[in-house]
Amino acid sequence: MSDKPRTPIGKIVAASLIGTTIEWYDFFLYGSAAALVFPALFFPESDPLTGTLLAFLTYAVGFVARPLGALVFGHYGDRLGRKKLLVISLLMMGGATFLIGCLPTHAAVGMAAPLLLTALRLVQGFALGGEWGGAVLIVSEHGDTERRGFWASWPQAGAPGGNLLATAVLAVLTAVQPAEAFQTWGWRVPFLLSGVLVLLGLWIRLSISESPIFQQAVANAKPSRSMPIVEVFRYHWRDVITAIGARFAENVSYYVLTAFVLVYATTEAGLSKPVVLNAVLIGSAVHFFSIPLWGALSDKLGRRPVYLLGAAGVGLWSFAFFPLIDTRNFAAVTLAVTVGLILHGAMYGPQAAFFSELFATRMRYSGVSIGAQLASIVAGGLAPLIAVALLGAYDSSFPVMLYVAGAAVLTMITVFVSRETRGRDLATLGAAEHSTTR
Is the pTM of this model over 0.70? Predict the structure, then answer.
C-alpha cells in the first residue's frame, strides 16, 4: 500500500472530468468533421451522401478499436492501477487528434489520405476504449457508497463537455470564417488545439493518488495466474451481457442526437451548419448539467428506475425528434436535441456507478471496459452509419425513428431483468457475487 495521502474526492472528480472532456473533445471533433468536411476533403470522388457514408465508416472504425483498447487497458489497469493507464490513454488520444490536424487531403496524396485518417481513427478508438473504464472507476473507488451515483456521474459529464467544446470551436470557426477558408484550412485548428488541452489534462492527472480500493485489493490478493479478462468471463459473464444491453440504447441515441443530426439537418432539412451546431451546443450544455442530477437521483431511487426512464424516454422521443428538425425552426431544432439529450442523461448519469457495482475489484477495470466497449461496436459505432444508410434507402426519417426505438426496447428489457446494485460495497464485492439476473 502506498503512503501517498489520499486525494480529496473533489480533486479526483475534477481530474477525471477534465481528462474525459479532453478525450471526448478529440473523439467528437472527428464525428463533427466527418459530417461537415471530411466527405469533400478525403472522399471527393463520391456523391455527397456516399461521401458522408464513407466518412462515417472511418468514424465507425474507431469504435471497432475500442474493445481492443478496453482489453489491453483493462488488463494492465487491473494489474498496475487506474492512474497510470489514464495518463497513457490521454497521451494516445491527444497525439492522434493532433496528427489528424496535420494530415494531407485527397487532393495532395490521393488514397493515402483516407488510409492515414483511418489509422489515426483506430488509435483514437483504442485510447478511448481504455479511458472510460479507468476514469469512472477511479472516482467510484474513491467516493462513498451513499453518493457514488452522483460522484461517478461527473466523468460521464465529460462526454457532453467534450462535445460542447468541440461543437463550440467548430461553431465559432464556421461563423467567423468564409466557407471556403474553413474547408481549406480552418477545420484543422480544433484538431491542433488538442495538443494544448492534453498538456492541461496531464498536469492534473499526474497529481492525483491511486484508487485506495485497488491498493487494498492488491495488498490482500492471493497470487493468481489467470488474466483479469479470463476471470471476468468466468465469474461475471452475466454482468458483461447486462452492460452490453444497458449500453445499447444509450449509445445509439447519443450518436443519432449529436452526429447524425448534423447530416440530417443540413442535407434533408436544409438548415445551415451554424444553426445546427448552435442547437447541439445548447443541448450539450444542458446535458452536461443534467447528468450529475440523474446520477444523484439514482442514489435515492436506485440505478434501475432512473435508467429505465431514460431508455423509455429516448425511444418515445425519437418519434418527435425528426418532425421537430423538419420544421427548420431554430427553437424547435434546439428543443429536439435538448430534450433528447436530457433523456439520454437518465441512462448515462447512473451508468458509471451501475457498471462499477457489477464487478469485483481485481477484475473491475476489465469488466467495466469490455462490457461497455463491446456494445460500442454495434451500437455507437454503427449508429450514424445505419442512420445514413436508412435515410438513403427509404428517403424518410421514420426507419431511423424505429431504429432508435428498437434499441430502447432492448435496453429496457436488459435493465428490467437485472438486479439493483445501489448500495453495494466495492471494497468487499467479490467474484462470488457475480449474478445480476433474477
Answer: yes
